[in-house]
Amino acid sequence: MIALAWLACGGGEPTVTDESTPIEHTGTPAGPVDRDGDGWDADEDCNDADNTIFPGAPERCDGVDQDCDGAIDEGYDLDGDDVPTALDAGCAMLGPTDCDDTNA
Predict the structure, then answer these.
(1) How many Å apart are CA 38 and CA 104, to the nearest integer?
(2) Residues whose CB is less than 8 angstroms from the CB of residue 44 and which lie 6 or more positions away in sequence, other chains included
(3) Strand locations in 28-103 (E)
(4) Which of 20, 38, 56, 97 is least crowded, fewest Cβ atoms below 10 Å from its Cβ?
(5) Which tens digits make up the pLDDT trace of 23-48?
(6) pTM for this entry
(7) How far apart are CA 100 and CA 104, in angstroms?
């Protein structure tokens, strides 16, 4: 009965208001993000656009820091004898040199 009287007095459609606070979407997801799917989020991964680069990844002789330790191609060893390749100028040299990196 009250609603009918209000509609009659108001002369129009009732207005419904929502007084709740709207949630603003910022486009940034909450929590850690792993863009390349390698299991390391962007805060820990030194290149979150490449899934072969993450903390602890194996190094390759390519001028890139795969394991996110700040060193490039450290300890790279062509023959697996735990001595870095002395003749490969493209890789960092750590430890003693290896006279013959074709022979372990």
Answers:
(1) 32
(2) 54, 55, 68
(3) none
(4) 20
(5) 666 666 677 899 999 999 999 999 99
(6) 0.49
(7) 8
